[in-house]
């Protein structure tokens, strides 16, 4: 084949396919939301077993002309491992049915680890629309694309001025917390011996609640002071803030546990970028989240060197990454 700009035509065709795959991937989250809007994960779950296309179409009661649309939607979602196809009759060629995978189990409503609200939140048109302003934001003086696109001071100003979006945001964050609670069952030793724990910025307190019958909500400003306790929990909090802001928060956390002698500690649940050890898809997810933090709230995702630098500047010299589950890591931190 001919050569263009030093590349073989076959290389350029491969590059074109790569570029188009990345560009068209915006449809992947939209199609997951499409399936949720149709109630497909719940239909398969309630069916009690794998469901055939004809059974799915009948339950959905879509127009007959749209039956093939459901098949084509499911073909894509099966390809992306959102659903699975099972052969249900060895005697009938092509007799197949759709089943849930671990991923689509997370989309079934009514269980403690349902992430449907997170899917709805991340597909919110206003939120998605902000990212059309990235070029303009880069050349401007605004700290976030919220300022560039909406003229508001910050993302937090935006959600507090928009009750509907605030509700979507809170539901999404709470669903995330439910899944973190599931992961923390394997890290119980981190919480052993604690008589008190402050969940800083914990929203509904969902993560810090596990097994607790003695709960109180305390208003305050984490940049000024944090209530004293045996331990302070920071769940997906620090990635929302700049390094300077994080150092202020960590210093206040240190003060909050300083009266506990050697027993006081910080428990951080957050993302730790590890490009050398993480698989490609996990690193990609963390780097995408870094872009979200950078542009929407002036925060960042950090690798271990970044975390250590923050800890040292806050006067917290001892830490260990206790365990890693999925996207998150748990870090224990001591004065």
Mind explaining what this structure looks like?
The chain is an alpha/beta fold. Helix content is 47%, strand content 14%. It has helices at 9-24, 27-38, 40-47, 53-60, 67-79, 102-105, 116-122, 125-130, 134-139, 145-150, 155-161, 163-184, 243-257, 280-296, 304-313; strands at 3-4, 7-8, 83-87, 96-100, 197-199, 231-235, 265-270, 272-273, 302-303, 318-325, 328-334. The strands form four sheets. The protein has a five-stranded mixed sheet with strand order 5-6-7-11-10, covered by helices on one side. Strands 1-2 form a two-stranded antiparallel sheet. Strands 3-4 form a two-stranded antiparallel sheet. The N and C termini lie far apart (64 Å). The mean pLDDT is 89.
Helices and strands, with pairings:
Layout: E1 3-4, E2 7-8, H1 9-24, H2 27-38, H3 40-47, H4 53-60, H5 67-79, E3 83-87, E4 96-100, H6 102-105, H7 116-122, H8 125-130, H9 134-139, H10 145-150, H11 155-161, H12 163-184, E5 197-199, E6 231-235, H13 243-257, E7 265-270, E8 272-273, H14 280-296, E9 302-303, H15 304-313, E10 318-325, E11 328-334
Parallel strand pairs: 5-6, 6-7, 8-9
Antiparallel strand pairs: 1-2, 3-4, 7-11, 10-11
Helix pairs in contact: 2-7, 7-12
